[in-house]
Amino acid sequence: MDSTSTIVRCIQAAAKDLGLPIPRDEAASHVIGLGLHEAMQAVMPDIDPLFYPRMVERYRYHYLSKDHELALFKGVEAMLQDLTQQAYFLAVATGKSRVGLNRAMNAVGVLSLFDATRCADETFSKPHPAMLQELTRELGQDMRRTLMIGDTTHDLMMANNAGAGAVAVQYGAHPADQLAVCEPLYSATTVAELHQWLNEYA
């Protein structure tokens, strides 16, 4: 989903609400993919820890007022439909909460396309490998035949930590040079490139 700019604005709005220093765009986008509490600690490491629960609460307030505006990147729905028809197992490993993920997936009508999902409020946050370990066990799959597609270094590091393959997408939260450090199998600049690569190599 095309959510980077919305998440950044919501983090900044939460800080403003509490009279805290407002994180720069780059700092706010870097924590995307982490669980909410971990994200707030990472983006604002120098504030009084008592503020973190309040930052989470204010972030949720702002995000829930905007999540209906989010949309899939062009070509994603067709790619998901194609992969489903080819009998791939599709899963989501996300820093979102369970409530947030279900709201987002229902809003764009893709919930039924996924076989399993795991959220940060249910297990360890990225880059810990637990989400991928739990998803592969649930689906009865081999980690060596599992591919994590992500737009952050947190996603790719989770794949590396779990022993899964990793594919980067450059149209999300982290810049291409940071993604490249994680040595993904492939790095796509567009959804069309990702779809083509998956059809050829997955």
Features:
single chain; about 200 residues; mainly alpha; DNA polymerase, domain 1; Rossmann fold; 2 domains; three-stranded parallel β-sheet; two-stranded parallel sheet; 5 strands; about 50% helix; globular
Biggest β-sheet strands, sense, barrel: 3 strands, parallel
Beta-strand portion reads: 5-15%
CA distance, first residue to last residue:
21 Å
Q: Estimate the global geometry from the Cα principal axes.
A: globular
Strand order of the largest sheet: 3-4-5
Helical content stands at 40-55%
Can you say what the CATH homologous superfamily of the largest domain is? HAD superfamily/HAD-like
Number of helices, where a helix is a run of at least 4 consecutive DSSP H or I residues: 10
Task: Count the beta strands.
Answer: 5
CATH topology of the largest domain: Rossmann fold
Q: Which architecture name of the largest domain does CATH use?
A: 3-Layer(aba) Sandwich
The ordered string of helix (H) and strand (E) elements is: HHHHHEHEHEHEHEH
Structural class: mainly alpha
**Parts with pLDDT < 50 across at least 5 consecutive residues:** none
Average pLDDT, to the nearest integer? 95
CATH C-level of the largest domain: Alpha Beta
Our Rg estimate from Cα atoms comes to 17 Å
* Count of domains: 2
What is the compact description of this entry?
The chain has 202 residues and is mainly α.
Describe the protein in words:
With 202 residues, the chain is mainly alpha-helical. The protein has 2 domains: 4-68, DNA polymerase, domain 1 (Orthogonal Bundle); 76-201, Rossmann fold (3-Layer(aba) Sandwich). It is 50% helix and 10% strand. It has 10 helices and 5 strands. The protein has a 3-stranded parallel β-sheet, sandwiched between helices. Strands 1-2 form a two-stranded parallel sheet. The two termini are 21 Å apart. The model has no long low-confidence stretch (mean pLDDT 95).
